[in-house]
Amino acid sequence: MTTSSARNVLIIRNVRVFDSRAGRLSTHPQVVVVRDHRIEAVQPLGPVPAAAEPGAVVIEGDGRTLTPGLIDAHWHGFMAAVPKEDLATADIGYAHVLAGRTATQTLRQGFTTVRDMGGPVFGLKHAIDNGSISGPRIFPSGAMISQTSGHGDFRPISDLPRGRTGGRGFAEVAGVGIVADGTAEVLRAAREQLMQGASQLKVMAGGGVASDHDPLDVTQYDEAELRAAVEAAENWGTYVAVHAYTPRSVRQAIRAGAKSIEHGQLLDEATVELMAAQGVWWSLQPFLDDADAPPMPPANRAKLLQMVRGTDNAYGMAKKYGMAVAWGTDILFSPELVARHGHLLAKMTRWYTAAEILTMATATNADLLALSGPRNPYPGELGVIKPGALADLLLFDGNPLKDITLLERPEQALTLIIKDGTIIKNTLIETPTSRTIHAFAQ
User: Which residues neighbour 430 within 8 Å (Cβ) at sequence distance 6 or greater?
Assistant: First the structure.
């Protein structure tokens, strides 16, 4: 036992603990002890824990379910809540304010960690980390690296040829994306993101739905250009994640050394088998043509429909080959969807059990984040409840393994949210142990 102040000790007692590796709840009620930023002990409910010195805070769980904090592996903090037309015309400060609100809303829905897959969130991350604003841990990618006419090239045709308007477009100035052609430009773009603190790099390797000038089927960059980004990342001990949907684009990215494929709904079985054999991650999103599909112009919607037709097949192949599958939202331009964060996780019951879903959004996603190696901005284990792990915890008023829809009602279902050992939300009674030592007796 350390000698740090008891004011930094939090004891959560009489809870069923979710084992995110095994995908099951503890058989008997447990006591979880948090000291400072880490979990110190997980033990059966019984006599007074050694940490229960006067001044420690005790929270009675009354048999509720305790899980690790949730992780979104494909988040876009800067672009999630701003309609696309506003993002191109509004003052940049307005967009950053909305990003801060999105971060706070994300945390209040139980997502204590996110991997930002493109956009200017370095400042937002700093503000969260130093306590200026409430939000999740952010693993930032920085600006999305794109070729001319790629998924990260947001310039209008009127800006062509390059330099005609005298400088870079709004998206590049804002740090949303950066257009880089040739290995030298890709290297510069990659190194600039790493210099700013990117924990991983995001490179556009194929066409996309939300962009206007690249069909979904096109392959972007050549292998040498992709390899330049991969080598820059590897030199910093981290990795490249690529946006790609098709077999050709994914196979080229794998040859170049990419470690994570974002999306991939149009893949064939041979490519999925290759990914599985080489240990490449599949960061797959539950895109369907349903109420969660955002409104968009006809040309973009045609691409959306082409893509979502492959979603069921993609999840089926991922399960068949035992893929390392990460879960993320990829919410763009929709404040309505930001408010439905938990719903986008709960809808995964179309393909997985509730236990598998919770494991994916905790321990599995944490394993993907760990690929950042020394660029990991939050050293320590995430996504699990065990001694030594970082103290990101959720207490559900109910059992999400039996009722996954609890994720859709965080305001009512989440009675306690803890991030980094700090209580973010608590609707239960907390009591200093100096007045309730007797409460630990069975």
Answer: 57, 58, 59, 423
Highest CATH level, class, for 6-68+383-440: mainly beta
pLDDT of the residue at 264: 98
Q: How many beta carbons lie within 10 A of that of residue 154, not counting itself? A: 24
Q: What are phi and psi of 283, to 5 degrees?
A: -90, 95
Q: How many CA atoms lie within 13 A of 259 on its CB side?
A: 18
Amino acid at 94: Y
Closest CA to 11 of 38, 34, 29, 41: 34
Report the alpha-carbon distance of residue 65 to residue 407 in Å, rounded: 13
Residues across the chain: 442
The pLDDT tens digits of the residues spanning 138-176 come to: 999 999 999 999 999 988 887 888 877 666 777 888 899
Per-residue confidence (pLDDT) for residue 168, from 0 to 100 = 73
Asked if 238 and 276 touch (Cβ cutoff 8 Å), the reply is no
Q: Which amino acid is at 236?
A: W
428 CB neighbour count, 10 Å cutoff: 16
What residues pair up with 206 in beta bridges, in sequence order?
219
Beta-bridged to residue 19, according to DSSP, are 24
pTM for this structure?
0.94
Domain with CATH 3.20.20.140 in the chain: 70-351
The DSSP bridge partners found for residue 262 are 243, 283
The CB density around residue 157, as the number of other CB atoms within 10 Å, is 7
Alpha helices for 321-398 (secondary structure H): 335-338, 341-346, 354-359, 365-369
pLDDT at 436 over 50: no
For the chain, how big is the Rg over CA atoms in Å? 22
Class of domain 70-351: alpha beta
